[in-house]
Amino acid sequence: MHKILFLSVIVAGVIAGGCATSNRDYSTSSLVVDVTDPHSTVSAPTAAVKQYNKNGQVVNAGVSSRQNQIQSQVSYVNNKNINNVALENNSVANAKSSGALEPVAVNSANGSTSNSNVAASSSVNNVNAADRYQVVKGDTLYSIAFRYGLDYRDLAKKNGIEPPYNIAVGQILALNLSSAKAPEYIVKKGDTLYSIAKANGQSVDFLAGVNDLTPPYTLEVGQKLSLARHNGNSAAVAKVENTVPVAGEKEIKASTSSKETVAKTQKEEKVSTVATTPVVSGKARTVSGVSWTWPTQGKVVKQFSLAEHGNKGIDIAGTRGQQVLAASDGQVVYAGNALRGYGNLVIINHDNEFLSAYAHNDVLLVKEGQKVKRGQQIAKMGSTDASSVGLHFEIRYRGQSVNPIKYLPK
Fold first, then answer.
1. 33 and 64 in contact (C-beta within 8 Å)?
2. 103: helix, coil or strand?
3. Residue 198: pLDDT above 70?
4. Which of 88-92, 286-290, 332-336, 390-394 is the least confident region?
5. φ, ψ for residue 317, nearest 5 deg
6. Burial of 367 from C-beta contacts in 10 A (0-12 / 13-18 / 19+)
7. What is this structure's pTM?
8. What is the pLDDT of residue 386?
9. What 3-state DSSP class applies to 247?
10. DSSP string of 157-213, one letter each residue
11. Helix or strand or coil: residue 264?
């Protein structure tokens, strides 16, 4: 009797459960998982996983457990984190390969970000690694342009940098080396150096210097001549400011008015803008409107070379401590040792067209922003980053190396 009563209770329970199930809303297929709350610390046994269609029929079934669910959640989170880390690592790796770590230019003096530099840096992300440069302490825009044989004005324009060319440590600059390649001219029958110069708005002196030609400038049909990146009718030249911003030192906050910035800087920093070192008189030669003198005395032991990896200037032998002089009037736009292979280096801007460089010095006697006269001492000869004592001297016109011998007095 008891058995019959017990069986009746069981049958009634099954019927009730079936009715409850039949009353479910299967308007859409749903996945029913019988597991413990995932936030609970109590482990659950294996549970049935069934998927029903709108008619209440089982269309998919499986087995799940809280442990499987947790593993799936952990796997998802880990994969997501791994993917994020991989993306970050790839980004950093790509940046390191180009010498760049941060795609945003930040003014280290006040923590602010220059809008123009941010916009330029954002576009840099689309530039090949070989065409990017990360600013390091001691850099100036002029020294970076010099390092890569670029015109500093073109470099500034490509990166949205206005005078006085303030740059910050960590800032990424687009170099665009391929687009900066100097144009060439193929000599045709009847051409002379003078006719080529006139037709292309070039200086004869420059064409002779950049192509290492000597009078009477004999040319051959089919000969390739390098031209200046800009002709004589190019846009107005930017004025060189009295203060040359140096990355990593007290930097100037970006301003809509460069004149206001310069005026403010000059009031805050009372730095001598004129070098006080002695001036040595000597023979001069005027080429392309600039008067040049020899930067030091001594024998030229290595000449200028047009080879791809040839000497971009001349090397003059001498003794340690010997005077190194400014080859022409101008303004110091770099004085430091951040350019590998040049040692203690001075770069002077002449008339906004030419840069002259003086490398391997033992002691530097001038600073960025100072104005110097032709023949004024700027350094003492040495052998920094060199195997012997001497001066490596270069002249560049709008970023292009020319043979100094074509400009110095004979």
1. yes
2. coil
3. yes
4. 88-92
5. -80, 155
6. middle
7. 0.64
8. 97
9. coil
10. HHTT--TTT---TT-EEE--TTTTPPPEEE--TT--HHHHHHHTT--HHHHHHHTT-
11. helix
DSSP conformation letters of 205-230:
HHHHHHTT--TT----TT-EEE--SS
**Residue corresponding to tokens 């709350």:** 37
- Split at pLDDT 50, 70, 90, the class of 59 is low
Contact call for residues 334 and 352 (beta carbons, < 8 A): no
- Residues 107, 111, 114, 117: is their CA dihedral positive or negative? positive
Between CA 38 and CA 8 the distance in angstroms is: 37
pLDDT digits (tens, 9 = 90+) for 350-364: 999 999 999 999 999
**Helix, strand, coil percent values for the chain (each to nearest 5):** 25, 20, 50
At residue 55, the pLDDT reads: 54
The values of phi and psi at residue 269, to 5°, are: -120, 110
Strand order in the sheet with 58-64: 30-33, 47-52, 58-64
Torsion of CA 9, 10, 16, 19, to 10 degrees: -150
